[in-house]
Amino acid sequence: MRRLALYAAVACSVIQGQHAFDIHIQERTAQVEPTRLRATVESLASFGTRHTLSDSVKPNRGIKAAQQWIINHVKSLQAIQGSRLQLYEERFTAGGSGRLPQPVELVNLGAILPGVDSSRKKEVLIIAGHYDSLPSGQDPDADGPGAVDDASGVALCLEIARIMAAEKPAITIYFVASAAEEQGLMGATHLAKRLKAEGFTVRGMIAADMVGNVQGINKDTDNTTIRCFSEGVPSIETETQKRTREALGGENDGRSREWARYVKRFGEPYSDNLDIWLMLRRDRVGRGGDHTPFANEGFPAIRFTDTFEHYDRQHQIPRVENGRRYGDTPDFFDENYCAKITRALLASFMHLGNAPAPPYDIAIGGNGTANTRLTWKLPDDPRISGLVLYSRRSDAIHWQKTKTLPKSTEITLQNVMLDNNVFAIATLDASGNESVPVYPTALISGR
Ligand SMILES: [Zn+2]
């Protein structure tokens, strides 16, 4: 018996991409309905185009018709029994250069689920898909159904909003259908800057952009993996932060990268046959997305995108040329694949939405000694019942071990060589909800 117990204790401390199931989250992820995802994608694609400058008069075509559909859909989610969702409708004017030569009124849409912790009113989570589309040649009158890019992301956000409608997370969650992504990330930029200016802290942002195409232009077909892009080095790093990062070796541990690891750790167990690829780059080569403006404001922000893209289906007017088919139409959208991704992201948001506030001012040291020492500060959050120490060898990409610690502000790891390991610390509540682990930002000097 003693040997069995010891084995169990050791096994618990080793991360193998698995996490103890939370029954409530498991019930919620089981409610994801592929048919609803498809219905949203088909509805949005039915407007012919959602180009930002498309027809604004016809009730069944163009961006205005799509906006009204989203508003009506959110209202239907507000009618769900026990729903706490609020309609999110944020209008602003942007443009005057680039793809929008004249200033135009734009609108971000979606739903907000208010957090219930009154001391954390300024902390938010954001999941976003963009509702605008782009045909080839950027012609606002041409057909650009945008089924996968990015009606799929909007469908994912609205499905998570539906399932979480009656939830009471500690912090507020935005489910966003963003505007004018294709015109220069304008909707996401407006929201990120507004939240920053108003003193909000975004604890985690995800751009779900193209989450439903399973066949690549290289003819590979895959519905079991999804790419998660995150920056390793923060784009807004100051000179001082750069020197500290170089001293600590934090190139693979920016806040967005830790958020990406978190989604993999807490999302994968709730989605069968889905492997989240932790892409060690900010985005696809030479390209960007709605997560970028949030990262630019210093918020942890990542992007989920199909593993294999099919460029004949992106930003194309639907047509057949020389026997080759072009266009982003709903028949290329795989709702069962999108449902897998939806489950993983839903689980991650439910975990982090209920997690305590994270630790801060983490310092590490031990140079020239046999030991590694960590110190940190804890926020004034009564729900913190303990901490989790994450570690991996310095040559590893994923966290390899976790160790639960009592509520404290320091630890000395005996006979653990500082240089050979990487550490981060998360807060933990009594129900097992964890914050995103935080990487050290200071070096403890001396021995
Ligand atoms: Zn897109």
Outline the structure in words.
This protein has 447 residues and is an alpha/beta fold. The protein folds into 2 domains: 23-353, 3-Layer(aba) Sandwich (Aminopeptidase), CATH 3.40.630; 357-443, Immunoglobulins (Immunoglobulin-like). Helices cover 28% and strands 23% of the residues. The protein is built from 10 helices and 17 strands. The chain has helices at residues 2-12, 23-29, 34-45, 63-78, 147-164, 186-197, 239-248, 255-267, 291-296, 335-353; strands at 86-94, 104-113, 123-130, 172-178, 201-208, 225-229, 275-279, 301-306, 319-321, 324-326, 360-365, 372-377, 386-393, 401-406, 410-413, 421-428, 442-443. The strands form 4 sheets. Strands 1-2-4-3-5-8-6-7 form an 8-stranded mixed sheet, sandwiched between helices. Strands 15-12-11-17 form a 4-stranded mixed sheet, with helices on one face. Strand 3, helix 5 (147-164) and strand 4 (172-178) form a beta-alpha-beta unit. Helix 3 (34-45) crosses helix 10 (335-353) and helix 8 crosses helix 10. It is globular and about 70 Å long. The structure holds zinc ion (ZN). Zinc ion is lined by residues 130, 149-150, 181, 209-210.
The fraction of residues assigned to DSSP E strands is: 15-25%
Q: Kindly report how far apart the N and C termini lie.
A: 42 Å
Could you give the order of the helices and strands? HHHHEEEHEHEEHHEHEEEHEEEEEEE
Largest sheet entry: 8 strands, mixed
| Strand order, largest beta sheet | 1-2-4-3-5-8-6-7
- Rg, rounded, reads 22 Å
Specify the structural class. Answer: alpha/beta
- How many domains would you count in the coordinates? 2
The total of helices stands at 10
Q: Segments where pLDDT lies below 50 for 5+ residues?
A: 1-18
- Which ligands are bound? zinc ion
Give me the count of strands: 17
Mean pLDDT: 93
Q: Which bin fits the share of residues in helices?
A: 25-40%
CATH architecture of the largest domain: 3-Layer(aba) Sandwich
| CATH topology term of the largest domain | Aminopeptidase
**Quaternary structure classification:** single chain
Q: Outline, from the CA principal axes?
A: globular
By CATH reckoning, the class of the largest domain would read Alpha Beta
